């Protein structure tokens, strides 16, 4: 059961091979009110019902490849599918998977908007929806995911501005990847004020515009890599932009309309710098 369907020429790379062994629609819970495990089952079925799933990967009663559960509570803790065409929108019901810590669905032809309900996944640490066709804006509700440490929505068709409060409560965030979308407007000046653990920022190849705030990176002492290239950023590179980022190794800012020159003090502050482009 739940063998990965092999389809000539189509790479199928299920990441987690743990199978959901604990769900059972047949168990009688009629005496008790709907418990969390029932809610999870309903959410998975709603998720599946929105998707075309031409390879039939989500066949059967949620004993799918890519679903992991906690052994004791029988709650879904991870949903991880990569390179499998699911083809369709993400169900808002996914917001009911209240024990989910990993949502990792990449290169799966997901369409439509990101449901704001995902902001209810308060245990989520890893959000990765790279390489789909998701559109519209990034819901501000994702700013409620206070345990997030990895945030990737790269290579989609997301547009609109980055909400100024998107990261203000994500104190544990270490990596954010939004490259390859159509995001526009200024990078909010206070975006990274409360993300002291941030190591990687990748916002390249969007339509971000306007000046870079002089204090944008001031709180990022652990920052190692930042990529802002291929946007419409303009104005000067603020002279002290990198004055408090001693861990920085790589800076990518080409293909913008920035003026002026690389701040002369850059090399004094950045002893680990290897690449600037
Ligand atoms: C919750 O429901 C599931 C399936 O209906 C059942 O197996 C499990 O024992 C129930 N758990 C609790 C704590 O009631
Ligand atoms: C998410 O999926 C990618 C690629 O399929 C995999 O390399 C990565 O380990 C997964 N991450 C988690 C936290 O499951
Ligand atoms: C789960 O989420 C959906 C949509 O967000 C909602 O309509 C539904 O009532 C929720 N609860 C359960 C127990 O499925
Ligand atoms: C999934 O998306 C890719 C790239 O956009 C496309 O080439 C492919 O035909 C799509 N597959 C399905 C089943 O829609
Ligand atoms: C996120 O938090 C805000 C403010 O507390 C709240 O209004 C909103 O409903 C929350 N969103 C979700 C999806 O839980």
UniProtKB/TrEMBL annotation:
Signal peptide: 1-28
InterPro entries named among the record's database cross-references: DNA_repair-toleration (IPR053211), Leu-rich_rpt (IPR001611), Leu-rich_rpt_typical-subtyp (IPR003591), LRR_dom_sf (IPR032675), LRR_N_plant-typ (IPR013210)
Domain of life: Eukaryota
Keywords: Glycoprotein, Leucine-rich repeat, Membrane, Repeat, Signal, Transmembrane, Transmembrane helix
Domain (Leucine-rich repeat-containing N-terminal plant-type) ranges: 38-70
Coiled coil: none
Transmembrane segments: none
Protein name: Leucine-rich repeat-containing N-terminal plant-type domain-containing protein
Species assigned in the record: Triticum urartu
Native organism taxonomy: Eukaryota, Viridiplantae, Streptophyta, Embryophyta, Tracheophyta
